[in-house]
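Subject — a protein and its fold
Encoding — discrete vocabulary of local shapes:
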Amino acid sequence: MVKNKEKDIKLVLEDGQEFYGKHFGYYGNTAGEIVFNTAMTGYPESLTDPSYKGQILVATYPLIGNYGVPGRETKDNLLAFYESDQIHIQALVISEYSQEYSHWNAERSLDDWMRENKVPGIYGVDTRRLTQIIREKGSMKAKIVIPDQDLDFVDTENVNWVAQVSIPTKEVYGQGSYKVLLVDCGVKNNIIRRLLKQDVQVIRVPWDYDFSKDKYDGLFISNGPGDPIQCKTTIKHLKTAMDEDKPIFGICLGHQLLALAAGASTYKLKYGHRSHNQPVLYQPQQRAYITSQNHGYAVDDKTLGSDWEPTFINLNDQTNEGLRHKFKPIFSTQFHPEASGGPTDTDFLFDDFMQMIKLKKNAK
């Protein structure tokens, strides 16, 4: 049950607009960039996605909390039902909070989980109107304020959020025949789980790790939060790696970092792509897929060099969703093929990456 629900709490936008509601989760102040997600399910996965670091998340689906929060079982040293070991959003804004939950795997309520992680929530908010404001004006600074307390807005664009969510030291998963070096910029657990389904050993390293002298069969650049320009060290290491001929696969922020390392530019979207139903077109085959996405920046197609070509395009706003090198085994996607949560339409891209690794390593 939600406790202290008689206490009012308010959401304040950068432009001065205020939304009042009741609190759940942790009772306290916080500030960040306000964004919205249109997914109908998957709030445990979204809340633990490191790409949301520094953001106040608005869920457009009207009822949240009805299936509680899963247990903390582990497999391969990873939490089985979460995308990381903690909640990363600054706060959660919803229309209605479910006072009761029911699910075969639920161990506790969303309210209790957010309290444990000291993450505030506000419900009773007109999220339809709030989403319209974000769509019209773009993602903006916001803060959650409790009575008789206040705090300043946070300039989230100038923070290196990746440094806050990446691991501090190297970690190794699996015992496979092929070594994949994974640069952790805020990786989701399901990416590691998906790689481990192959005959792979995953070597996970910090975002600023110099892997130029490491031995590996394939390089993977993960998703993560914030402006890719903040990851200058990662971009520098990527430039060195791209001079070699080893397979490289980037997802989400990793896609943007690959583009920057190749000399292209990125820009901030008005309100980003955050949902499980983003349609993309694979241009070489003129085939459409439904994808899961969570990002606020995009690659500028026009700035790609002649050795690169766009592969996927977003069918809603025509923005870039993927690219590949014309001559080297390097490719990336803006969306999440590992799809947790979301559709698995593009899961085959992990098999493509593995095929590149096998061909390169076993080539005579």
Q: What stands out?
A: The chain is about 20% helix and 35% strand.
